[in-house]
Protein backbone atom coordinates (compact mmCIF):
# COMPACT_ATOMS: atom_id res chain seq x y z
CA UNK A 1 0.00 0.00 0.00
CA UNK A 2 1.19 3.50 -0.85
CA UNK A 3 0.59 6.08 1.85
CA UNK A 4 0.23 9.86 2.04
CA UNK A 5 0.44 11.66 5.38
CA UNK A 6 -0.70 15.27 5.15
CA UNK A 7 -0.78 17.86 7.91
CA UNK A 8 -3.70 20.25 7.66
CA UNK A 9 -5.59 18.21 5.09
CA UNK A 10 -8.91 19.53 6.37
CA UNK A 11 -8.93 22.58 4.09
CA UNK A 12 -7.29 24.36 1.17
CA UNK A 13 -4.16 22.94 -0.41
CA UNK A 14 -4.11 20.14 2.15
CA UNK A 15 -7.60 18.92 1.22
CA UNK A 16 -6.87 19.22 -2.50
CA UNK A 17 -3.68 17.22 -2.01
CA UNK A 18 -5.55 14.54 -0.08
CA UNK A 19 -8.03 14.28 -2.96
CA UNK A 20 -5.21 13.94 -5.51
CA UNK A 21 -3.50 11.11 -3.65
CA UNK A 22 -6.80 9.37 -2.94
CA UNK A 23 -7.50 9.38 -6.67
CA UNK A 24 -4.31 7.40 -7.22
CA UNK A 25 -5.20 4.74 -4.69
CA UNK A 26 -3.10 5.99 -1.79
CA UNK A 27 -4.11 5.48 1.79
CA UNK A 28 -4.34 9.05 3.07
CA UNK A 29 -3.99 10.21 6.67
CA UNK A 30 -4.83 13.75 7.76
CA UNK A 31 -3.17 15.25 10.84
CA UNK A 32 -5.25 18.23 11.89
CA UNK A 33 -7.50 19.55 14.63
CA UNK A 34 -10.36 19.62 12.11
CA UNK A 35 -11.45 16.53 10.21
CA UNK A 36 -10.93 16.34 6.48
CA UNK A 37 -14.41 16.09 4.91
CA UNK A 38 -13.29 13.84 2.04
CA UNK A 39 -14.57 10.29 2.02
CA UNK A 40 -11.69 7.84 2.27
CA UNK A 41 -9.34 10.06 4.28
CA UNK A 42 -8.37 8.61 7.64
CA UNK A 43 -8.48 11.46 10.14
CA UNK A 44 -6.01 11.47 12.99
CA UNK A 45 -7.00 14.41 15.22
CA UNK A 46 -3.82 16.18 16.21
CA UNK A 47 -3.03 19.60 17.65
CA UNK A 48 0.26 20.45 15.94
CA UNK A 49 1.02 22.96 18.69
CA UNK A 50 1.11 20.10 21.21
CA UNK A 51 4.26 17.93 21.38
CA UNK A 52 2.33 15.28 23.31
CA UNK A 53 -0.40 15.10 20.65
CA UNK A 54 2.19 14.79 17.89
CA UNK A 55 4.04 12.04 19.76
CA UNK A 56 0.82 10.09 20.33
CA UNK A 57 -0.25 10.39 16.69
CA UNK A 58 3.17 9.49 15.30
CA UNK A 59 3.34 6.43 17.53
CA UNK A 60 0.22 5.19 15.73
CA UNK A 61 1.58 6.12 12.31
CA UNK A 62 5.08 4.67 12.63
CA UNK A 63 4.15 0.98 12.12
CA UNK A 64 1.83 1.92 9.24
CA UNK A 65 4.67 3.85 7.61
CA UNK A 66 7.08 0.97 8.04
CA UNK A 67 4.64 -1.39 6.28
CA UNK A 68 4.04 0.97 3.33
CA UNK A 69 5.45 0.54 -0.15
CA UNK A 70 6.23 4.26 -0.22
CA UNK A 71 5.16 7.34 1.72
CA UNK A 72 4.50 10.94 0.78
CA UNK A 73 4.96 13.00 3.95
CA UNK A 74 3.41 16.39 3.18
CA UNK A 75 3.97 19.28 5.59
CA UNK A 76 1.23 21.81 4.82
CA UNK A 77 -0.41 23.00 8.07
CA UNK A 78 0.66 26.43 9.27
CA UNK A 79 -0.32 29.58 11.14
CA UNK A 80 -0.54 32.97 9.41
CA UNK A 81 -0.78 36.07 11.60
CA UNK A 82 -0.87 39.78 10.87
CA UNK A 83 2.19 41.11 12.69
CA UNK A 84 5.37 43.09 12.19
CA UNK A 85 8.95 43.37 13.43
CA UNK A 86 7.80 46.09 15.82
CA UNK A 87 4.62 44.31 16.87
CA UNK A 88 5.25 40.59 17.40
CA UNK A 89 6.02 39.63 20.96
CA UNK A 90 8.20 36.62 21.54
CA UNK A 91 5.38 34.46 22.87
CA UNK A 92 3.40 34.99 19.67
CA UNK A 93 6.49 34.19 17.60
CA UNK A 94 7.05 31.01 19.60
CA UNK A 95 3.45 29.94 18.95
CA UNK A 96 3.85 30.36 15.19
CA UNK A 97 7.19 28.58 15.13
CA UNK A 98 5.75 25.75 17.23
CA UNK A 99 3.22 24.96 14.50
CA UNK A 100 5.14 26.00 11.40
CA UNK A 101 8.60 24.69 12.27
CA UNK A 102 8.87 22.68 15.49
CA UNK A 103 5.87 20.46 14.69
CA UNK A 104 7.47 19.55 11.35
CA UNK A 105 10.66 18.60 13.13
CA UNK A 106 8.78 16.50 15.69
CA UNK A 107 6.94 14.60 12.97
CA UNK A 108 10.15 14.10 11.00
CA UNK A 109 12.02 12.84 14.05
CA UNK A 110 9.33 10.21 14.61
CA UNK A 111 8.73 9.12 11.02
CA UNK A 112 11.88 9.67 8.96
CA UNK A 113 13.59 6.55 10.37
CA UNK A 114 10.60 4.48 9.19
CA UNK A 115 10.28 5.86 5.65
CA UNK A 116 10.94 3.20 3.01
CA UNK A 117 12.96 3.87 -0.13
CA UNK A 118 10.89 5.70 -2.71
CA UNK A 119 9.30 7.99 -0.15
CA UNK A 120 9.32 11.79 -0.13
CA UNK A 121 9.23 14.62 2.39
CA UNK A 122 7.36 17.53 0.81
CA UNK A 123 7.34 20.96 2.42
CA UNK A 124 4.68 23.47 1.37
CA UNK A 125 6.46 26.78 1.72
CA UNK A 126 5.50 30.07 0.17
CA UNK A 127 6.73 32.83 -2.08
CA UNK A 128 7.69 34.26 1.31
CA UNK A 129 10.18 31.45 1.86
CA UNK A 130 12.64 33.55 -0.13
CA UNK A 131 11.45 37.13 0.24
CA UNK A 132 9.42 39.25 2.64
CA UNK A 133 6.44 41.58 2.72
CA UNK A 134 5.25 43.90 5.45
CA UNK A 135 2.70 42.66 7.97
CA UNK A 136 3.60 38.95 8.02
CA UNK A 137 6.67 38.94 10.25
CA UNK A 138 6.31 35.58 12.03
CA UNK A 139 5.02 33.82 8.92
CA UNK A 140 7.97 35.03 6.83
CA UNK A 141 10.41 33.83 9.48
CA UNK A 142 8.78 30.41 9.64
CA UNK A 143 8.68 29.97 5.87
CA UNK A 144 12.35 30.91 5.58
CA UNK A 145 13.03 28.29 8.25
CA UNK A 146 11.17 25.66 6.22
CA UNK A 147 13.50 26.33 3.30
CA UNK A 148 16.48 25.62 5.52
CA UNK A 149 14.80 22.51 6.92
CA UNK A 150 14.19 21.13 3.44
CA UNK A 151 17.79 21.65 2.36
CA UNK A 152 19.15 20.17 5.59
CA UNK A 153 16.74 17.23 5.30
CA UNK A 154 18.00 16.57 1.78
CA UNK A 155 21.59 16.39 2.98
CA UNK A 156 20.82 14.22 6.00
CA UNK A 157 18.84 11.70 3.93
CA UNK A 158 21.63 11.11 1.41
CA UNK A 159 21.78 7.45 0.41
CA UNK A 160 18.29 6.64 1.72
CA UNK A 161 16.48 6.98 -1.65
CA UNK A 162 14.07 9.37 0.08
CA UNK A 163 13.80 12.77 -1.55
CA UNK A 164 12.62 16.15 -0.38
CA UNK A 165 11.28 19.28 -2.06
CA UNK A 166 9.98 22.72 -1.07
CA UNK A 167 6.95 23.80 -3.10
CA UNK A 168 6.45 27.58 -2.93
CA UNK A 169 2.91 28.57 -3.93
CA UNK A 170 2.09 32.12 -4.86
CA UNK A 171 -1.20 33.69 -3.76
CA UNK A 172 -3.54 30.70 -3.69
CA UNK A 173 -7.31 30.78 -3.35
CA UNK A 174 -7.60 29.26 0.11
CA UNK A 175 -9.74 29.84 3.17
CA UNK A 176 -6.61 30.92 5.05
CA UNK A 177 -5.80 33.67 2.53
CA UNK A 178 -9.39 34.92 2.33
CA UNK A 179 -9.70 34.98 6.13
CA UNK A 180 -6.35 36.75 6.47
CA UNK A 181 -7.63 39.46 4.10
CA UNK A 182 -11.09 39.65 5.71
CA UNK A 183 -12.62 38.43 2.45
CA UNK A 184 -11.83 41.77 0.82
CA UNK A 185 -12.47 41.12 -2.88
CA UNK A 186 -10.64 44.27 -3.92
CA UNK A 187 -7.44 43.12 -2.24
CA UNK A 188 -7.86 39.60 -3.63
CA UNK A 189 -8.21 41.04 -7.13
CA UNK A 190 -5.10 43.14 -6.66
CA UNK A 191 -3.16 40.03 -5.61
CA UNK A 192 -4.48 38.12 -8.62
CA UNK A 193 -3.23 40.92 -10.86
CA UNK A 194 0.32 40.40 -9.58
CA UNK A 195 1.04 37.44 -11.87
CA UNK A 196 1.12 36.77 -15.58
CA UNK A 197 -2.31 35.12 -15.67
CA UNK A 198 -4.25 37.65 -13.61
CA UNK A 199 -5.78 35.12 -11.23
CA UNK A 200 -5.12 33.36 -7.96
CA UNK A 201 -3.44 29.98 -8.00
CA UNK A 202 -5.93 27.10 -7.61
CA UNK A 203 -5.49 24.60 -4.80
CA UNK A 204 -5.67 21.65 -7.17
CA UNK A 205 -2.75 23.08 -9.16
CA UNK A 206 -0.56 22.91 -6.06
CA UNK A 207 -1.92 19.46 -5.25
CA UNK A 208 -0.96 18.25 -8.74
CA UNK A 209 2.54 19.66 -8.30
CA UNK A 210 2.95 17.96 -4.93
CA UNK A 211 1.84 14.64 -6.40
CA UNK A 212 4.28 15.07 -9.27
CA UNK A 213 7.13 16.00 -6.92
CA UNK A 214 6.51 12.86 -4.88
CA UNK A 215 6.94 10.69 -7.96
CA UNK A 216 10.05 12.42 -9.31
CA UNK A 217 13.11 12.07 -7.08
CA UNK A 218 15.24 13.91 -9.65
CA UNK A 219 14.04 17.15 -8.00
CA UNK A 220 15.53 16.16 -4.64
CA UNK A 221 16.58 19.28 -2.73
CA UNK A 222 14.79 21.64 -5.10
CA UNK A 223 12.76 24.76 -4.47
CA UNK A 224 9.85 24.80 -6.92
CA UNK A 225 8.02 28.07 -7.50
CA UNK A 226 4.31 27.79 -8.26
CA UNK A 227 3.05 31.36 -8.63
CA UNK A 228 1.93 31.79 -12.25
CA UNK A 229 4.88 34.06 -12.94
CA UNK A 230 4.63 36.60 -10.16
CA UNK A 231 5.61 40.17 -10.99
CA UNK A 232 8.73 41.47 -9.29
CA UNK A 233 8.03 44.31 -6.88
Give a structural overview.
- With 233 residues, the chain is α/β, with parallel strands linked by helices.
- Helix content is 41%, strand content 17%.
- The chain is built from 7 helices and 7 strands.
- The chain has helices at 12-23, 51-66, 90-111, 137-156, 175-180, 185-192, 203-214; strands spanning 2-7, 27-32, 42-45, 70-75, 120-124, 163-169, 222-226.
- A 7-stranded parallel sheet has the order 3-2-1-4-5-6-7, with helices on both faces.
- Helix 1 (12-23) crosses helix 7, helix 2 (51-66) packs parallel to helix 3 and helix 3 (90-111) runs parallel beside helix 4 (137-156).
- The relative contact order is 0.15.
Give the topology:
Blueprint: E1 2-7, H1 12-23, E2 27-32, E3 42-45, H2 51-66, E4 70-75, H3 90-111, E5 120-124, H4 137-156, E6 163-169, H5 175-180, H6 185-192, H7 203-214, E7 222-226
Parallel strand pairs: 1-2, 1-4, 2-3, 4-5, 5-6, 6-7
Helix pairs in contact: 1-7, 2-3, 3-4
Short description, anyone?
41% of the residues lie in helices and 17% in strands. It has seven helices and seven strands, in the order βαββαβαβαβαααβ.
- Main sheet makeup: 7 strands, parallel
- Quaternary class: single chain
Cα-atom Rg, whole angstroms? Answer: 17 Å
Structural class: alpha/beta
- The spatial strand order of the largest sheet comes to 3-2-1-4-5-6-7
Helix content: 40-55%
Strand content: 15-25%
Whole-number mean pLDDT? 93
